[in-house]
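Justification of computing resources. Each target in the renewal requires a structure prediction run like the one illustrated here; the chain below, 179 residues long, is used simply to show the kind of job we budget for.
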Amino acid sequence: LLNFIIDKLPEGILIADANATIIKANQRVCDIFELNIESSLALKGLPLGSFFETISHLWPNIAAEQSKLGDPSLKMQNDIGNIIHLNNGKIITRDYVPLVTNNTFQGHLCVITDSTNTLKAEAEKEQQRRFYEEILNSIPADLVVFSEHHEYLFINPVSVKNPEMREWLINKTDYDYCR
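Resulting structure tokens:
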């Protein structure tokens, strides 16, 4: 049942034992790293070092990942939300969790998410926000944008000259300002 669940997850799951030998990887790992193998079962029994060599053309600075395997203090620490830009244009988020039971290191769990679309959309949204903010800041008149709850969402420099006060007012109401 556990293997079935891991295989159905939308994230790449890679599990290795304490000797850094892969004991489970799902098909999503193969898809994310563009591995030309029949199935993820081919990864079972492969040393993590060999796996890293296989994907090294995609993953810049994979040597840093490999060095963690040999460092007892690093491999015992959670490393969540590590964003990695692959050489093929994909952006992945890698979560690493050491598998520890009874204070004994048992292995490695890596959860790999293809975050390309999400992170690119966030970057485009931020770029668009800056573009419109620049336009609104250049208007030579008082300009303020409020939310439906009367919170300040945007204030141009003509309305409030002090940048610290302008920043402080964002997400505040007139009531907050008057207190």
